[in-house]
Specification:
The structure holds two protein chains of two kinds.
Chain A: E1 5-6, H1 11-45, H2 51-56, H3 65-74, E2 80-85, H4 94-105, E3 109-110, E4 119-123, E5 134-139, E6 144-149
Parallel strand pairs in A: 2-3, 2-4
Antiparallel strand pairs in A: 4-6, 5-6
Chain B: H1 3-26, H2 34-58, H3 65-81, E1 90-93, H4 99-126, H5 134-150, H6 155-160, H7 169-181, H8 189-208, H9 214-226, H10 228-233, H11 239-260, H12 263-279, H13 281-301, H14 306-312, H15 320-329, H16 346-351, H17 353-365, H18 371-390, H19 392-414, H20 420-426, H21 428-431, H22 433-451, E2 454-458
Antiparallel strand pairs in B: 1-2
Classes of the chains: A alpha/beta, B mainly alpha.
Amino acid sequence: MPGVRRLTVNRRAVAIIATAAVAAQLIVAVAHLPSLAMAGGRAYDTKTPAIRDGDLDPLALYAGTQALVLARAAIPPSATFAVAIGNDPPVAQPEVLRRIFDFWLAPRRDVGDPAKADWVIVYHRSSESVGVPYTTEAGLGPDGNAIKVSHPNTGSDS
Amino acid sequence: MNRTDLGLLAYNAILLAVGYAALRPLGFAARGTRITRAGLAYLVGFGVLGVALTLAAIVGISPTIPAIVIVAIVIIGATTRISLRPDATTWHATPLGFGRYGTLAAAIGGLVLTVASLAAIALAAKGQLYPGFWDAIDFWIPKAQAIYYGHGIPTDTWAGLKHPEYPPLLPTLDAGIFHFTGGFHPSLLPLQAVLLGIAFLLTLLGLLDGITPRALSLPALAALATTPWFWWRLQTPTGDQILAYFVTGAAVATIRWLITGERSYFRLGFVLLITATLTKLEGGFVGLLLAAVICVAIYRQRRSDFRSALLLLATPLAIVPWRLWLAHAGIPGSSPDYRISYLAHPGFLVDHTHRFTESLRVMLHAPFAEYASTSLVVVATAALVVSAVRRPVIAATVAAWCALAAGGLAAIYWIGTLPVSWYIENSVSRVGATVIVAAAALTPLLLGLALSDTITEDE
């Protein structure tokens, strides 16, 4: 009969293995389900944050969210910036903190060197300690300031 | 309903519309149930729109609302004009009578799958897990940000981001979401990622139907969906999990084509492989290996389709426009973490043999670190063994592809410039997961095939 392939191997043995496989899969799936369902249930019971808070809140693990919000407000989108991180108090992972500012402040571009930046985010240190002349200082809450760098050679503030 | 909700709704409606339109020429317009077809339409819509928008972005067209709407209309219009020969036949395996126990197993599997999916949606709707994997905020989302703010792919910014050589399909689509929702809102991305993940699971169910009874497929998909690392990664807007969806979808579709000869599955596999290629560099590599083993198997089993199978080998060429863009922008086209040319230097390879053996050792042991993955691998191995007895070519094809994919990844770590411990810590679990997801998805297909006394062509 065209289109029909006859197979000859004992199907009973295969059925036993398939049944064992299904049992194993269901046991593992059912065992994991309560913890996943609880994670979903807890999330369902949580109030949905406003969209901007939802974007920002997960970053609190890495950086002061007030500093992130105020830095975004202070620094114009077309400006460049640098992040100067101090030890007062110490920051656990300075590179991670820098990446978080890069992430949150885009399209503002991190140029690394405070002397070449339009703005410097001064985090856990004093603005004077950065060593660049500046014209404006904007508070970023308890974590620091944003300073607008004065570039005397170009005759402009930024 | 605010602007964000409306934008998200419109964006998803467009994905679905494109997907449904593409199902007709692919040959899936009338296949499957309404729910599995919806999943397939979403996955295919993501792929087709993603590929089109990526090519548009490469030539300088930003994924703004008008651009996405126009591209979608063009795709939908084109699909109505494409006339491909439909499958004259549909194949059905004769299912083993599992009786009441089978119905119960399917019901429990379906229930677990539903609860796991709803829990994932509830969590994703809060959006709090978007930085769950560091890569998300290190480069995947920043790339979408760069396209969104740069009104296209901005050369300078792109070059400064990590892995600029990765193709931009996912960042382009994410930038589209930002345009639709009126701003840079990364907390919306987990929901999109979860919707795609659920669409993937529904797609698998549809691809397995006809060969695998649901008494087998639903428990298998429930086990995959509730595996902790898979479930939590449903939330992450990174390319690794999405790559796993498209590679796995392509593998199941092309293996099914190998089994039955239904051309619809070949076409679907072709589209999914192109999407995988533009999702991440590994997509082209793993896709090429899949195409190669399918070609060998088709040559052995059904030589009349060999020329079609050769077309699958061309899918990695979808990367060419992106490589041209990189060359034009002066950005290296390969990762600085390894040099493919080292594979041709026996001296280098001998000196670094320990890297290969250590990588392979870790890759072989990693799935056994927790019992959910262990059960996936053990069941997949059992399915391979029993199907090897009854359908050796199919089983050998699956085994060869999984082994080649795992070996290929270990070879990348072999020639890598970073310490092998770095790869083991940071890369194996993410990239290697594709092979485990694919093996888990192919398990019910192999079992269904092994159980079928006859595979019948319904005229």
